[in-house]
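Morning. Coffee machine broken again, so started the prediction first thing and wrote up yesterday's gels while waiting. Chain of 189 residues, entered below exactly as on the submission form.
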Amino acid sequence: MQKGRHALLAFFILVDRKGILTLTREFECLDLTFRPVVVDDALYLLKSVGSDLFPKSLPLADIKTLKQAREWCLERALEWEEGKCYVWSCRHLNDSQVIGQVTLLPLENCFALAYWISPKCWGKGIATQMCKALLSQVQSSGYQGEIWAGVHSWNHKSASVLKKLGFQKITSSNANTVEYRLAMAKYQV
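Came back before lunch.
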């Protein structure tokens, strides 16, 4: 892709109760590019989750070896092809290093949004930019349903990202988790 060009290179199709959704596999926004996760992303994943700053209570922190990181990336890539889960690796356009990932997980009545970002990129607005870019793609697909997201109750920075994106806090059944929903029909890019 050319820098700064918003291009739809390839598509995948999701079916929900409202019809067929077409979302793009690869896209760009500002200085970031998004592509489906591949096994070669494993080293970047391991470096990020292995950082002393990466929260140990997050599931990805259980990845301790390159082999585990490769297996995780391979599983996500296979889930993409099976239509079970969609993980985009996010890179800076200028150096192509993976700086995080953003995920859409189809649930029964909505999609779940998840993301992680390398600790070296914290506090720079990149997490908000990543999620906003994905939500823009979802909106462009015509999806009018809801997006769900959950964060640990201690994770105020992730909660702040979701609030900036327009997510509304909802009642959670777990005291350790704060849940949010975003109605795509009302979402403003």
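The radius of gyration is 16 Å. Going to sketch it on the whiteboard this afternoon.
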